[in-house]
Design goal:
This protein has helices at about 25-30, 40-65, 70-95, 100-150, 155-175, 175-215, 220-260, 265-275, 280-300, 300-330, 335-370; strands spanning about 1-5, 10. By secondary structure, the chain is mostly helical.
C-alpha cells in the first residue's frame, strides 16, 4: 500500500518473482531478450563448429598421409597382410615356436605365396603373348566390323579415331625405360618395407599396442584397449572374408574360362582373385576383362557363356557370400561399401579402393565402441607381466589400502 499527498492510496501487486505485475516476464520472454541468441541457434552453431573441426582434422590427416605416401601405403599394406598371416603365427606359437620364429615363418610363407603367384602369372602370360597378339588383332578388327556393319552402323572414320585414341592412351600409360626403372626400385623398396613391418607387427604387435595404450590417461585405458581390439577383430574378419570371397569367385570363373578354352585362363583367374579385394568394382572390372579377352580369342559365343557365368557368380557373391561372410565382419550396408570404394578410388586410385572398405569398417566399429562403452575409474597400467589388461572394462578398479604399494 502506497499513500500519496492527496489522500489517494495505490496498491502494487507483487509477482512471485518479486517484481511488479506489469514487469513480469516468463521464461520464453526472458530468453528472447535483445542480444541473446535462441537456444536452437546456439546448438546449431556448436554442431556446425564440431563438424567443421572434424572435417579439418580429417583433411590434415589425409594431407599428411598423402605427403608420406612412401610410409603410409606400406603401413596400410602391412596391417592387412599382418591380419592375413596372424592365424598362422598364432598356430605356430601354440605349437611351441618362439615369437621370432613364428613371425619369420609367417613372412617367409607370405613371400613364397606372392612370389609363386607372380612367377606363375609372368610365365603363363609371357608364354601366351606370341599367340595372343594375332588373336587380339583379329578380335579388334572383328569388333570394328561389327560397329560399322552391325546394328549400330557407326561412321568408319569415327570408329578409327576412337581406336587410335585408345591406342595412344595405352602407349602413354606405359612408362619409359628410366621411369620404369625408378618405378621398379620404388616397388621393391616398398615391398621390403612392408615385409619388415609385417615381421615386427606379428612378433611385437601386442607389446606395441600395450605401450601405446599406456600413454593414455588411466581411466581411458580400458576403453581405448577395447576399441583397438574391436578394430583389429573387424580388420581380421574383413581380410579373412575377402579371401574366401575372392577364392570362390576365382574358382568359378576360372573353371568356366578353362572349359571354353581361353588361352589366358590362369592369368584371368588370378586377376579375378586379386580384383575381389576391391568390393563390387574389382569384380566388375575383372569380369569385363575376362569377357573381352574371351571375345577376341574365342569369339562371341564363348564370350556370351563367360558373360552368363560372371553374372551368376556376381549374384552368388552379392546374395550369399557378402551377407554370410563379409557383412558379419564389416557391418556395413552395401550402399556405404560402394560409396567408400568409389571415394577411395577417386582420391587414391587402386590403393585407395583396396583400403577404403576396411578403413570405413574399422572407423565405424571404433566410434560405435566409444559411443556405447563408458568405463569409469582409473587404471595404473594396461598390461601386467602376462600381457593382459589389469582391469577388464566391466570390472571396477582395485581399491588399495592406505600405504599399500605394488600391483
Amino acid at each position: 500500500m502506497r499513500s500519496y499527498g492527496d489522500g489517494r492510496a495505490t496498491s502494487l501487486s507483487m509477482t512471485p518473482l518479486g517484481g511488479p505485475r506489469g514487469d513480469a516476464r516468463g521464461p520464453e520472454t526472458a530468453d528472447r531478450r535483445p542480444g541473446r541468441a535462441p537456444a536452437w541457434a546456439v546448438r546449431a552453431t556448436v554442431v556446425s563448429a564440431a563438424v567443421l573441426g572434424v572435417a579439418a582434422v580429417c583433411w590434415v590427416v589425409v594431407t599428411v598421409l598423402l605427403r608420406l605416401a612412401i610410409v603410409s601405403f606400406p603401413l596400410a599394406a602391412a596391417l592387412l597382410l599382418t591380419a592375413l598371416v596372424t592365424p598362422l603365427a598364432r598356430w605356430l606359437r601354440r605349437a611351441g615356436a618362439p615369437a621370432w620364429l613364428a613371425a619369420l615363418a609367417s613372412v617367409v610363407g607370405l613371400v613364397l605365396v606372392l612370389t609363386g603367384i607372380g612367377s606363375l602369372l609372368w610365365v603363363r602370360t609371357s608364354a601366351q603373348l606370341s599367340n595372343l597378339t594375332p588373336a587380339v588383332t583379329v578380335g579388334i578388327n572383328r569388333v570394328r566390323s561389327w560397329l560399322i556393319d552391325g546394328p549400330l552402323s557407326l561412321d568408319p572414320v569415327r570408329v578409327d579415331g576412337i581406336r587410335d585414341r585408345l591406342v595412344a592412351q595405352v602407349s602413354e600409360a606405359v612408362p619409359g625405360p628410366v621411369a620404369g626403372a625408378q618405378a621398379a626400385v620404388s616397388v621393391i623398396g616398398g615391398l621390403l618395407l612392408v615385409l619388415f613391418l609385417v615381421f615386427f607387427l606379428v612378433k611385437d604387435g601386442e607389446a606395441m599396442w600395450h605401450w601405446l595404450v599406456d600413454q593414455a590417461p588411466g581411466r581411458r585405458r580400458p576403453q581405448l584397449d577395447g576399441a583397438g581390439r574391436r578394430a583389429w577383430t573387424t580388420l581380421s574378419g574383413y581380410v579373412g572374408g575377402v579371401v574366401v570371397v575372392a577364392a570362390v569367385d576365382a574358382v568359378l570363373i576360372g573353371t568356366a574360362l578353362f572349359a571354353v578354352g581361353v588361352p589366358l585362363w590362369l592369368s584371368l583367374t588370378l586377376l579375378t582373385f586379386l580384383g575381389a579385394f576391391v568390393p563390387y568394382l574389382g569384380a566388375l572390372v575383372s569380369g569385363v576383362v575376362a569377357v573381352l579377352v574371351t571375345l577376341v580369342t574365342d569369339g562371341a559365343r564363348d564370350a556370351l557363356v563367360i558373360v552368363v557365368v560372371v553374372l551368376v557368380v556376381q549374384q552368388v557373391e552379392g546374395n550369399v557370400l557378402q551377407p554370410l561372410v563379409m557383412r558379419r565382419a564389416v557391418h556395413l550396408h552395401p550402399v556405404v561399401t560402394l560409396l567408400a570404394v568409389t571415394s577411395g578410388t577417386v582420391l587414391l586410385g587402386i590403393p585407395g579402393a583396396v583400403v577404403a572398405v576396411p578403413l570405413t569398417a574399422v572407423t565405424y566399429q571404433v566410434l560405435e565402441h566409444f559411443h556405447r562403452e563408458r568405463v569409469p575409474g582409473a587404471v595404473p597400467s594396461v598390461a601386467d607381466d602376462g600381457g593382459r589388461p589389469l582391469v577388464a572394462p566391466d570390472e571396477p578398479a582395485p581399491v588399495r589400502a592406505a600405504g599399500e604399494t605394488g600391483p
